[in-house]
Write the structure tokens for this entry.
Amino acid sequence: MKWRVRIFAWALAAGLLIYAGACKPSQPAEDDVTFSDEGEGITESSPVPETAVPTSRPEAVPEGMNLAECPGRFGLLSLKFSADIDFNAAGASLHHTLGDGVLLLEVSEDKPQVIIQSQNPVTLPVTINGTVGDCSLSGESSMIASASGYCENGIVHLIIEENWQSGSGVLTCPDRNPANFPLVGAGSMTHRGADGRGEVFYLDWGFSDQNIGYMLEKPFLGQGGSGTHTWTLMMEPFQPIMPVSTP
């Protein structure tokens, strides 16, 4: 019986390796996302884009929103991550959940431009549950996140780096002993926003008093995979913020 379990587990692992490789997420045309298979971790934040930054206030600010000024040097912001992703391929139905985790961001420069960077990458846990044929699966992995960008007129542009790591799972099948096997992660992805300058967040005046932030959701789409990324940018409540003056 044991040799049959080993063969079954090996075959399943090989199938999931192919399945995971096929499920690299892709993003709609309006959002610039790049992927990389190089490396298993993120050690440095992406450099701030060299694209010329506009000096006029964008017109696309949500109606009725009163923007705060950008934080000054050494000011802090927090970027909260969460995601729910489903993969369905090769007889496997797996649900990945990225639990709420927070990346701390710091203003490293404020003249002539407010530059924002993560102090250090953060590793966030990922839980995996689902079925493979008539078997149940539970596992875990992690995602390493960092971000960098800039703020102008109360609008923050962040290039967000996510590296979805490999993990491990336990397969439980009827009339078989539980089997351990590796799970291959989706790999690295860089979210650069619609214009390549970063995902856009608004510093809504007063949101820190309410202990909430500006939430941005983007689809996670790919061959056999679907779901959402959710990011929430929050201003640290202890630092003073002022409304942006209007001309």
